[in-house]
Amino acid sequence: MVCLTEEPTETLYALGQQHRIVGISGFTVRPAIARKEKPKVSAFTSAKIDEILRLEPDFVVGFSDIQADIASALIRHGVEVWISNHRSVPGILDYIRRLGALVGVADQANAYADELQRGLDAIEAQAATLPRRPKVYFEEWDEPLITGIRWVVELMRIAGGDDVFPELANESLAKNRILATTDPVVPRAPDIIFGSWCGKKFRPEKVAARPGWDAIPAVRDGELHEIKSPLILQPGPAALTDGVQALSRVIDAWARRHA
Questions:
Q1: pLDDT tens sequence across 72-127
Q2: 175, exposed or middle or buried, with CB in 10 Å at 0-12, 13-18, 19+?
Q3: Quick one: which of 40, 52, 101, 157 is 20 to 30 A from 195 by CA?
Q4: What is the distance between the alpha carbons of residues 82 and 1, in angstroms, rounded to a whole number?
């Protein structure tokens, strides 16, 4: 099997099925050992088709419409391809169950998904005790500004925060979550700003310097926080564990300070 993104790799390692993987995405960082053990044969929007074919995979797993061209090229070479398109927390859990079933370990995958759900339930129960819920702005990219995708917004809600652009969260395509200017964020007055600029470091000082943003409570109070993109922007186990926990720590601390 070849995994064109990180989440199938992380899932299969968690299920003890790493021996099935013959190639991975170059963006894979979880688990770290995968980068040492497996050849890197793809980026996110491109892939080394010839190298993938030389590995003779019986199955290739990818994610989203952005990998449609890769999938098409492999299909034309007779390779079986599954492109998932899950965009929600329930969708991630279902993805884990389906991937496990596809490789013959449905019981382990169901147990793993149930374990992840229990972890989310525990964080949500803790968030229910918070004295206040902050308004939160999640920035997925800065040039142009792109707001948080659905699973990120759902995880923020589970962690105790309320997204300031809920009307955009269900837009699966990034182009439909673009803010034409920085102006719409100011009147939404987020208490916390999370930045996860996929592939580059979040720069709070750059955000704080945007015209008019000094009026935003999050900027005024220094509540600008980076969540590393591998933790939150890949729709797999990372987001449901380390990602949501990172959100929860910041939101919990803010709520306790503003009780």
A1: 999 999 999 999 999 999 999 999 999 999 999 999 999 999 999 999 999 999 99
A2: exposed
A3: 40
A4: 11
Q: Which amino acid is at 196?
A: S
**Measured between alpha carbons, how far is 6 from 20 in angstroms, rounded to an integer?**
15
Provide the whole-model pTM: 0.95
Residues making up the chain, counted from first to last: 259
Helices 150-159 and 106-127: crossing angle, nearest 10°?
Answer: 50
DSSP 196: -
CB 133 within 8 A of CB 255: yes
Q: Is the peptide bond before 230 cis (omega within 30 degrees of 0)?
A: no
Q: Which of 200, 191, 243, 247 is CA-nearest to residue 222? A: 191
Contact 159/193 with Cβ under 8 angstroms?
no
Query: Strand pairing of 192-195 and 224-226?
Result: parallel
Q: What angle do CA 257, 134, 245 make, to 5 degrees?
A: 85
Distances from the Cα of 170 to the Cαs of 48, 124, 167, 189, 211, in angstroms? 32, 21, 7, 21, 28
Query: Which residue matches tokens 């939101």?
Result: 251
